[in-house]
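User: I'm preparing a small set of examples for a lab meeting where we compare how different chains pack in three dimensions. I only have the primary sequence for this one, and I'd like the structure in token form so I can line it up with the others. Please keep the answer compact; I'll paste it straight into my notes.
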Amino acid sequence: MKLFDNKVQERKYNVLREVAIQTWRGNDVFAEFNEISSKVIPKDEPPQRCCIYKDRAVIAERIRLAIGGSRKASGVVQVIDIACDECPEAGYVVTDLCRGCLAHGCIDACKLGAITIDSKHHAHIDKNKCVDCGRCATACKYSAIHNFQRPCENACKVKAISMGPGGEAMIDYDKCISCGTCVYHCPFGATVDVSSIVDVINSLKESTRKDANNPTIAIVAPSIASQFLYANLGQVITGIKKLGFAQVLEVALGADMVATKEAQELVEKGFLTSSCCPAFVKYIETKYPGLKEKISHNFSPMVELAKFVKEGHPEAKIVFIGPCIAKKAEVRKPEVRKYIDYAITFEELQALFDSRDILLREQEETEWNQASYYGRIFAKSGGLAEAVTQALKELDIHDFEFNPIVCDGIDKCKQALARADKGVLPNNFIEGMACVGGCVGGSGNLVRYDDAAEEIEEHSEEATATEILPNVKKTINIL
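Assistant: Understood. Below is the structure token output for the 479-residue chain.
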């Protein structure tokens, strides 16, 4: 079974692992740059770029992101300029397939005079006149005109990425929703999410001292059931504890709490959009500000659970572990920061395991059964709507007609929100997830695969709690 989807993830993981190893040892990471870079890029390997020196310069930037990123950039996703391949400008281009034909249908199709013919009868597009309408491509009988899209720009559904002055990718943080799609799709690994892995390790080291009274607690997203499939889930939980976490709690507990509150808020207001996905929330705030007041005022499951823990144990440090890069942006919000200390991804968790030589398949299994079936299914698209349906039933609310629409991926969310903004959406609840498939498709996952939702369903069915409200009431005993 493969551990990562591609070599970009593997390179990112290798840097994180080596940074983690040096941090556990108490070393200054940059002081150990030569050792880290030689481990990640051995001298006897052929360079990816022009030379090993540029490869290692990129590693230096990856290390910078692994310890928190550049202070000049405000977002949790940042661009490594020297790693960017400076792909050609996006848009329609004439390829080498152009045969210099006699017909020149492309010229007739272009109403703006953007196409010219050279002395060899080959077509050329003037980008200053072209509006990317695509008529020339349709007219070309040889399919010689191609709509080229830079991978990062093509992946970004909110048009937050463009070409910078030097040809490198540039992120507009006013538009960026921190979904991390560009991180996953850049084939050069030039777009990278900043990491708190060093802060988490230092927190664990401090909290495990003999005289310490500030435990570090992990709260883990239910989509973990779709990852680390080379071991049993109970072994993964044991591995997390071996890192030094005092407790490992299910974020699905917070989902149980949210389902109840969101059902009540929906009945009170009559129309609502979910607030569980921070990238979806940011998308509404930036693209559909008129719907901002329709966003559920409840916290996300992550924050809801962290708030519950912090209220009883204010001295504890809380670390969210999940598939979501946007959670790193959510943690930075002032109203959230007082409850959550750090957020890391499953990619970073794998690096932590390997930095401590924790072999998951050799661990004993820890029983992990705190949340209900309905809390766990939040990890897949449609799970939240199903949980709200159940919450309405348990709250004995039968005179309210619940009519949800489930949207996964920004394209689907855009369609529903556009109709809601115009007042023509027949539904009264929008469940929005920025990632296709829901959290199981998150950009911080180790792997993505078609059967991920089935793994979540199986995990959910293993929950001993089959109702939401009784499970919420018993959560007071989890700590």
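A couple of notes for your slides: The first strand starts at residue 77 and ends at 79. The two ends are 36 Å apart (CA to CA).

User: Perfect, thanks.
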